[in-house]
Amino acid sequence: MATAKQPPTRKKRFLLDDLELTILSLPTAIWYIAFCYIPMFGVVMAFKNYRVKMGQGFLYSLFVNSDWVGFKNFQFLFRGQDAYLMFRNTLGYNLVFIVLGVLLPVALAILISQMYSQRLAKACQTSMFLPHFLSWVVVSYFVFAFLSMDKGLINQIIRSFGGKSVNFYQESGLWVFLLIFLNVWKSMGYGMVVYLARISGIDTELYEAALIDGASKWQQVKYITLPMLRPIMSIMFILSVGNIFRSDFGLFYQATRNAGALSDVTMTIDVYVFKLLIERSNVNYSSAAGLLQSALGLVTILGANLLVKKIDPDAGLF
């Protein structure tokens, strides 16, 4: 029995469109290679006692002059007296940030999408997105202008009513809520824009059909908007969970002006490693901490993606 001949396969050619796309993506590819992939060999420092050899280069000092110490550099994260405190703060704050980072931007995006005045909607969107571009150094000066004991706006108001000035940078209980507020205020604009872009892409005929059927605004949001937002909400949730062992250094160190009395509520893994790096100048510890955070982040992302896929097979990141 004669077998059918296979059709000749066409050779793939590098077309002009491919060249344009390659040139367009080249700067991004170079950036990732230079700043993400090449520095990855630096994880070796987490397993070595790095010692500088005068007159020799960095590679010689790292691979020849430095001894292997195994997992010894990781022990400082768990044996220090602040180990429980920094893990508690890092995980506790991030759990709150993850919940609020999903709920509030979604609610704001839905509210802005329901505004009749497009000018007012654009103004609200811009004002909420603006804090995302401010550095924590700038934010820390604004916070200090409000909370300063001598010339802070809040203390001036308190003194004008006959009260005594309050040293807010000594009140650790207050900063638990203030740190959460600052994080939400600075980050919710970015998430809101992401969800708002998805809402604008929903087919308006769905809302028109629901309106004809007598659906209220809440019913339209419940049965149309939220189901359409569920995939992007799942992706944002998974990405947030991947950073649960990291903390925003600027928020916990710069916004609080490194006040010693606030260490109980500001001591996170990143702040602890930074202070240790200043005191001991031991880059091995910082490399070990960064590698551990990346490894735990990978595990949490895989776990969160698996959980989301169990609930909704079409809503996972990968």
Summarize the structure.
With 318 residues, the protein is mainly α. It has a single domain (55-311), classed as MetI-like (MetI-like fold, Orthogonal Bundle), CATH 1.10.3720.10.
Keywords:
mainly alpha, MetI-like fold, 14 helices, 66% helix, 318 residues, globular, two-stranded antiparallel ribbon
What this model shows, in words?
- With 318 residues, the protein is mainly alpha-helical.
- The chain has a single domain (55-311), classed as Orthogonal Bundle (MetI-like fold), CATH 1.10.3720.
- Helix content is 66%, strand content 1%.
- It has 14 helices and 2 strands.
- It has helices at 16-37, 58-63, 76-79, 83-113, 118-129, 136-147, 153-160, 172-200, 204-212, 217-241, 249-254, 263-266, 269-280, 283-311, and strands at residues 48-49, 67-68.
- Strands 1-2 form a two-stranded antiparallel sheet.
- The chain is globular.
- The two termini are 45 Å apart.
CATH topology: MetI-like fold
Oligomerization: single chain
Give unreliable regions as ranges: none
Fourth CATH level, the homologous superfamily: MetI-like
Determine the mean pLDDT: 87
Write the layout of secondary structure elements.
Layout: H1 16-37, E1 48-49, H2 58-63, E2 67-68, H3 76-79, H4 83-113, H5 118-129, H6 136-147, H7 153-160, H8 172-200, H9 204-212, H10 217-241, H11 249-254, H12 263-266, H13 269-280, H14 283-311
Antiparallel strand pairs: 1-2
